[in-house]
Design brief:
This protein is mainly α and 813 residues long. Helices cover 76% and strands 1% of the residues. This is Exocyst complex component 6.
Length: 813
Amino acid sequence: MAEIGEGPGTVPEHERILQEIQSTDTACVGPTLRSVYDDQPNAHKKFMEKLDACIRNHDKEIEKMCNFHHQGFVDAITELLKVRTDAEKLKVQVTDTNRRFQDAGKEVIVQTEDIIRCRIQQRNITTVVEKLQLCLPVLEMYSKLKEQMSTKRYYSALKTMEQLENVYFPRVSQYRFCQLMIENLPKLREDIKEISMSDLKDFLESIRKHSDKIGETAMKQAQQQKIFTVTLQKQNNVKFGKTMYINDRIPEERNEIVLKHAFEEEDENEEEVLTVQDLVDFSPVYQCLHIYSVLGDEETFENYYRKQRKKQARLVLQPQSNMHETVDGYRRYFTQIVGFFVVEDHILHVTQGLVTRAYTDELWNMALSKIIAVLRAHSSYCTDPDLVLELKNLIVIFADTLQGYGFPVNRLFDLLFEIRDQYNETLLKKWAGVFRDIFEEDNYSPIPIVSEEEYKAIISKFPFQDPDLEKQPFPKKLPMSQSVPHIYIQVKEFIYASLKFSESLHRSSTEIDDMLRKSTNLLLTRTLSSCLLNLIKKPHIGLTELVQIIINTTHLEQACKYLEDFITNITNISQETVHTTRLYGLSTFKDARHAAEGEIYTKLNQKIDEFVQLADYDWTMSEPDGRASGYLMDLINFLRSIFQVFTHLPTNSSDHAAMSGKVAQTACMSACQHLSTSLMQMLLDSELKQISMGAVQQFNLDVIQCELFASSEPVPGFQGDTLQLAFIDLRQLLDLFMVWDWSTYLADYGQPASKYLRVNPNTALTLLEKMKDTSKKNNIFAQFRKNDRDKQKLIETVVKQLKSLVNGMSQHT
């Protein structure tokens, strides 16, 4: 009844819920059931009832279905019971079959497991091979790197490092060994830098030690090239008809032989020509440069190299203290410098940037200034001209060698001009000794000639010409002494020696000619002139030797024109050239002659003084001896013999005859004047207090002999009584006292026509006082008292008048 009383909307709702429950997944039943409780009151109860009714309906349907299929079920059970027996049999069979199958499959399982294991190994091997193929190139490259390091191929090693870093390492960067390799590369680079720098240091030390050999080879090659060029040039000069004399005095006609020898020597030495690359292994420099370039540190390497080379340059440029003593010292100095700059030039041309032209020019300018200063200082110590000449040759070879490598050397040739002056000074000193030896060995007598061969031998050495002498038979004598041809030969030797220095200076023939003439002028005007003057002043050179020296200088003067011709033949510069320097032999030998003449006069006067010192007058004698004094006669005889010597003075020309006559006349006049002066001084000697009239008369006898000597014309050429005038002072003085003509003297004093014009009042007073004192002491007039008194008064009167004249003269003065 209750179910009938339900509203019509409620039943369909419950059915819907039941349908949802039956059709919905059990997980979603919750919300449906919740809706049962959310509906109207008593809805739950009504739902349960509806649910029970639904269950009963389903049970009825199940029962109907079971009843419908029961027979079939029974039949099926029956059939199953029948099959049960067969199933058991089948089970036994299946079990047996399974057992047998399991027994048979055990071996297959084992083999299958082996196959699986092999497959895994194969896969692993394939993977390993793939990875190894990826790693092997890296390992091979690293092994190659190690090999390159061990064989010191550092530049290749750096390139290998670059390949490893850029190509190979990125492929295997995930492996630990790769990281170890990457970490080791910077250390290897540093090792390479250190090793290459060490090799560079060894190289720098090596080239410092081998600079001598490098420079010696370079200079030798430059010298050979120069010899070949000069020889070829001289051969060309011969072809064009030029005749010159070369250093060893071989005429140009022999140059073909010299050139042939030069070619032969060049052929012999051609295989032995070495270059700087043959002497020095430059690979450390190249390698170090490449290494630092690859490492991006090229500037550091360049700075280090230049710094070290500058240090070596300073060491090379520092000479030994005794370098100037031998030519080997200079040679070592030059070869080291040449070796240094040859290496730098090679580095300049085979590398880019390591050494620049500006750097080498700066280094050379610094070195050149130092070299010039060193040579200027050390050459100043050289006193041997041969050493200076060898030094010049070394400097020329040194300059030519470096000039061949492009270094400017003009300053070196300018220095050679300074050294040339010093060379000339050493030559002058050497030839001064040569001249002194020649003068010491000379006997200062004409050269005796006994045969035609001797005459020709001397003429071949000295240009002497005398037609008159040639006509004379043998034996005969040449007017000059042995020193003349020897001096002439030595002057030519000096010109040769001076020419040796002038060669290879890159100067014109005109300049060389000027050098030779100037140096020869110095030899004549300074050295030879000084030696002649010193010779003339020597005490052992007598009057005869002085006369011979005058003769010698005359012939040497005449030979000067032949010396000029000799220089002209050497240089091919005509004497008519505007700027040609002339030889000053004329003035040189004239000065020497004048000095010899002056020395003749001096020595002659000294000899006269020696004779005068032998005078032994008795100034108190009452009567003269009646003959001249012995010393004076000896002196006159000596003067006669001496003036005979002057006949040997050269008179082969009118000029020489006039000159020799003048010398003889001057010597004779000088001797007479000096004798007159010496005799006058003897009378007026302050130590001589008393003179008797007898002594005056004796003295008068000596003066008469002097006058007779003067009048005998000991030297021709005097006019009238010119020579006698040398004794006029003595004659008038003695006449005044001998005649006692005081009245005439005092009356005519000061008159041009005075008989006693040459008697000085002071001289007369001095001598009169000496006689006055003698009169008082000896009482000469004691027997004639009145006459004595008169004469004494006369003497006193004369003395007073003479004193008056003397005082008047002093006041006038």
